């Protein structure tokens, strides 16, 4: 039996995925978590075979949890699921030790397949996301800078971006300023255009 911890801050999605995975004869969801901080504590307590982590959660994001779990529970395989399948996130997740990366649009059957492959020591990366990552090349932006820049794309004020990203306004300004500088843009709107043209958003 493959013991799984499932972490997602959206209760409906978390419960639905847990129910679907529980239908698989060889998979048992032993615990769930609603934040990155809770996920890390639960994983360290129950030491599952596989942790399925949402990329974006309050507290620690899925990649930060994966990085810490790789050190504290090295026998736990990590699968990251996301609705933000940017190339930068994929590369960062794999770099910290995640062994699966897939969009939330996949079926429960595909997720179960990914869980089995990770439990067996293999990898599962969504082929479309992998192709996009190869085509885009390396982004100079951190995952957080890309996230904030994307939230700024529709012209939202800093305070609104901060609320949506669960960050302080000053932190948002710092990320935007850094992204603009790295891309050689004159303002955040040009930075968005340049980053999208390169496939980094």
Please explain how this structure is put together.
53% of the residues lie in helices and 15% in strands. The protein has 201 residues and is an alpha/beta fold. The protein has 2 domains: 134 residues, Rossmann fold; 55 residues, Orthogonal Bundle (Arc Repressor Mutant, subunit A), CATH 1.10.10. The protein has a 6-stranded parallel beta sheet with strand order 2-1-3-4-5-6, with helices on both faces. Helix 5 links the parallel strand 5 and strand 6. Helix 2 packs parallel to helix 3 and helix 7 crosses helix 9. The radius of gyration is 17 Å and the shape is globular. The mean pLDDT is 91.
Features:
201 residues; alpha/beta; Rossmann fold; Arc Repressor Mutant, subunit A; 2 domains; 6-stranded parallel beta sheet; 6 strands; 15% strand
Order of helices and strands: EHEHEHEHEHEHHHHH
Question: Can you tell me the overall shape?
Answer: globular
DSSP helical segment count: 10
Q: Specify the CATH class of the largest domain.
A: Alpha Beta
Question: What would you give as the CATH superfamily of the largest domain?
Answer: Response regulator
Distance from N terminus to C terminus (CA atoms, Å) equals: 38 Å
How many structural domains are formed by the residues? 2
Helix fraction bin: 40-55%
What's the number of extended β-strand segments?
6
Largest sheet: 6 strands, parallel
- Supply Rg: 17 Å
Q: Give the mean pLDDT.
A: 91
Question: The CATH topology of the largest domain is what?
Answer: Rossmann fold
Low-pLDDT runs of 5+ residues are none
Widest sheet: strand order? Answer: 2-1-3-4-5-6
CATH architecture of the largest domain: 3-Layer(aba) Sandwich
Structural class: alpha/beta
């Amino acid at each position: 039996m493959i013991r799984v911890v499932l972490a997602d801050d959206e209760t409906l999605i978390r419960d639905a995925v847990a129910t679907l995975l529980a239908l698989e004869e060889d998979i048992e969801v032993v615990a769930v978590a609603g934040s990155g901080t809770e996920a890390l504590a639960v994983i360290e307590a129950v030491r599952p075979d596989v942790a399925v982590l949402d990329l974006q959660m309050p507290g620690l994001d899925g990649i930060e949890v994966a990085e810490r779990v790789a050190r504290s529970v090295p026998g736990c395989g990590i699968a990251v699921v996301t609705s933000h399948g940017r190339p930068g996130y994929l590369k960062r997740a794999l770099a910290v030790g995640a062994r699966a990366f897939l969009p939330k649009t996949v079926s429960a059957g595909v997720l179960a397949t990914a869980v089995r492959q990770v439990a067996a020591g293999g990898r599962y990366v969504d082929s479309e996301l992998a192709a996009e990552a190869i085509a885009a090349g390396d982004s100079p932006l951190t995952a957080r800078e890309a996230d904030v820049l994307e939230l700024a794309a529709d012209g939202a004020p800093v305070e609104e971006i901060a609320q949506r990203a669960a960050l302080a306004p000053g932190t948002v300004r710092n990320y935007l300023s850094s992204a603009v500088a790295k891309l050689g843009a004159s303002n955040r709107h040009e930075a968005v255009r340049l980053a999208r043209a390169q496939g980094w958003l």
